[in-house]
Amino acid sequence: MATETAAALAAGAERSRLPILRLGLWLFFISDGLLFALLATSRFYLVGTETPDDLSQTLGLGVTAILLLSSLTAFRAETAIAHGNIAHAKLMLLATIVLGLVFVVGVSLEWSIAEFTPSEGFGTAFFSMTGMHATHVVSGVVLLALVYRMVLTGRFSAGSHWGVAAAVMYWHFVDVVWVFFYPILYLVN
After folding, report:
1. For the whole model, what pTM was predicted?
2. Residues 60, 110: contact at Cβ < 8 Å?
């Protein structure tokens, strides 16, 4: 009985803080989005619409598909926890983490096979944009891993799962950034 009362109080406290938590997260997204927008515009400032021929379109499309799939698994994790399906939430969080790591490996592979260098205009833009994005993916993976650990310890429930929702929103933000970066880097010519 005391445990149920404590859980209900914790859920009520979380609900009362939700507006300020959401505002803080959106302010972060706006400020971080401006950073990504500046990186994207620097690509055009440095080299216009020029794209090197040796850029691997197949690898770029592959990592994009992996990241979009990870957005689906993240969404399914959030939906599962909101409906009290902890087992499915854990599975989908793990899938998202693995897909995020595969994305980072794919970007690292692109870096290793690229024939352009960071000292060239396109290389500067490419390595800056993909490096900053990969850093955000890695931080998202760490965040999702922390959330996964909290799910394992019973920290979240159908009525109290802001941590999962916030981590998934961050993951979606990182995915949306890539949806813009991919055509800017790989398709504009």
Report:
1. 0.88
2. yes
